[in-house]
Structure formats: structure tokens, C-alpha cells
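Hmm, how's this folded?
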Amino acid sequence: MKAVSLTKEIASTTYPGRGIVLGRTADGTKAVIAYFIMGRSENSRNRVFVATEDGIKTEAFDPSKLVDPSLIIYAPVRVLGNKTIVTNGDQTDTVYDLMNQQLTFEQALRTREFEPDAPNYTPRISGIVKCSDGGMNYAMSILKSADGNPGCCERYTFSYDAPLAGLGRFIHTYMGDGNPLPSFEGEPTLVEIGNDDIDTFAQNVWNALNEDNKVSLFVRYIDIATGEADSRIINKHH
């Protein structure tokens, strides 16, 4: 697989949905995490990311307009020791709780499946980054219906040991806009991470997202040697 431009890949469709990017800066010193949400309905667009002690949570921008919180209010990012968990739903808490009980990332996600939002059956996408002993590794997961048939949950986990500097992987919920929305297919896309500082990287990703549909973006750089994290949040509503 040839690495492609992250921003061009994001901009190639008006509605990739929710997306996770994991990777490593070109100088090899930092782990990179990005998570964005988009929305087509007023309920989905009525959200902001809010910082928490170890990550972020979603909140309604205008609580009076919140209709159904079940699939849109959750903690996308949490930290468990030297591991950072990022997902597009409340499976963040599932992974956190079960890994805390010594289950693996993959085992924890076996207790979950795609979202019950027929006819889209939105995939649950998840990622985990571990920084330890001066190195890093990460994994990504997608739980999806069988081409829109909810009778079968397809489970894929992709693991990356000692990720190469300057590269990352990008997974998102939908292949593009549609009705119903088509689930992501294939392995996470190999993308160029580059060596931008966190503010430039965050702004470039934000600018690549479709103006009408983008809602919020979270970016975190983790110093692989020290474990120190630096984070940014960009919300359309603020």
C-alpha cells in the first residue's frame, strides 16, 4: 500500500463520518492521535468536544435541542496507564473497563458490535496507542455489519508494531455519503503524517473536513520517550 496524503484522503469525500488517525511524526519522537466527528442531522451537529481529566467527552452545544443522546454522547478518548483509547462510541468505556480487568483490546471489543442505527448500522471503530520503554505500538478495530445485513457482525483488528516514522493509518465509519451510508471497507488507509507541530497538523485536518458536515476535532501528540501529552480541540460551535 502506497502512503497517501492524509488531508487529501479526508477531503476526498463529503462524509467520511467519524474518523481515527493513529501514527508517528516524521522525526520519530511523537505518537499522533486524531479523532473527528461529523454530522448530517441537527442532533449530530449539535455537539462539542469537552476536555476531561484524561481525554474528552462529547456534549450537546445547545442542550435544549438534544433529541437522543444514546449514540452521540460518549467519551471518545480515555487513558489507561500508558495506553490511550480512542473510539467512536461508548465502547471506549468497554475497552477501558475490560482491559483494566486484564482482557485484551480485541477481547474487550468482542463484547460489542456495530451500532443499532438501522439502516446504516454504523461501524464501531476503535484505536489504542501504547507508549512504553521508548517505543510505541498501536492497533485499530472495526465492527461492522455484513454489507448492511445486521445478521452478521464482521470483526477486524489491525495491529502495528514499531510504527514507521512519518506514517499513520486512517479509519473512518463510512466510505462516503449515501442512503444508507456505506460502511468503511478494507484495511485502514496508509497516510503521511509528516512532521508538523500539533497546531499546524490539527488545522490542516480541520480544513480538510467538509465545511457543512464537520463538527469537532481532537488531536493529541504524545512524547514517546516521556509519555507527556499535548492536546488540541477544535469545535465548529464555540
Q: What stands out?
A: The chain has a mean pLDDT of 97. Helices lie at 6-11, 42-45, 91-99, 105-109, 198-208. The radius of gyration is 16 Å. The first helix runs from residue 6 to 11.
